[in-house]
């Protein structure tokens, strides 16, 4: 069976949120999942979205996975890249080539848009996913460390320049 990939639409908000919740639960991060249907509508289906979502469906048009992605930029190559924020295949559909199919689709999409690379992050303890990505030719960037500021920390940092204006 060849799966179908389609770009998510406004009517998919509840489905996307359900898949996002499944992903959060799968990763043991359900407590961090605070997304709502309103937030999905405001970010994915606004007039000028900065992020895109695709759905992977089986031949019965049932959702079996999804990916959330956006464009980033490489200063050194002066080209866009495609950054995959999340890629998820439902547990009952794993080990059938669907993850590979999603990554193949996203790679093709990136190439068609002139992107020089596709990137994603993977939790350190997700050795199955890391092995899967490596098998498909990805290489881990062990020389880079991800740094993150939460909205509270962003507010504190932003206040530094507001005081000087």
Shape: globular
Catalogue the unreliable spans: none
Q: Count of helices?
A: 5
Annotated CATH homologous superfamily: Gcn5-related N-acetyltransferase (GNAT)
Q: Overview of this structure, please?
A:
By secondary structure, the protein is an alpha+beta fold. The chain has a single domain, classed as 3-Layer(aba) Sandwich (Aminopeptidase). Helix content is 36%, strand content 22%. It contains five helices and five strands, in the order E-H-H-E-E-E-H-E-H-H. It has a five-stranded mixed beta sheet, sandwiched between helices. Helix 3 links the parallel strand 4 and strand 5. The termini are far apart.
Layout of secondary structure:
Blueprint: E1 4-7, H1 13-26, H2 37-44, E2 52-57, E3 63-74, E4 79-89, H3 98-112, E5 118-120, H4 127-135, H5 151-164
Parallel strand pairs: 4-5
Antiparallel strand pairs: 1-2, 2-3, 3-4
Could you give a quick summary of the protein structure above?
It contains five helices and five strands; from the N terminus they run βααβββαβαα.
């Amino acid at each position: 069976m060849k799966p179908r990939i389609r770009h998510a639409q406004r009517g998919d908000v509840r489905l996307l949120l359900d898949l996002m919740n499944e992903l959060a639960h799968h990763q043991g991060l359900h407590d961090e999942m605070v997304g709502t249907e309103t937030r999905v509508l405001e970010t994915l289906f606004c007039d000028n979205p900065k992020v895109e979502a695709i759905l992977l469906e089986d031949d019965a048009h049932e959702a079996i996975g999804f990916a959330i992605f956006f464009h980033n930029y490489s200063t050194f190559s002066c080209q866009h890249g495609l950054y995959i924020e999340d890629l998820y295949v439902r547990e009952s559909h794993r080990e059938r080539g669907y993850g590979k199919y999603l990554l193949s689709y996203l790679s093709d999409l990136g190439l068609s848009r002139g992107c020089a690379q596709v990137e994603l992050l993977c939790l350190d303890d997700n050795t199955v996913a890391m092995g899967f990505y490596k098998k498909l030719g990805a290489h881990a960037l062990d020389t880079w460390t991800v740094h993150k500021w939460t909205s509270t920390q962003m507010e504190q940092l932003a206040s530094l320049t507001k005081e000087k204006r």
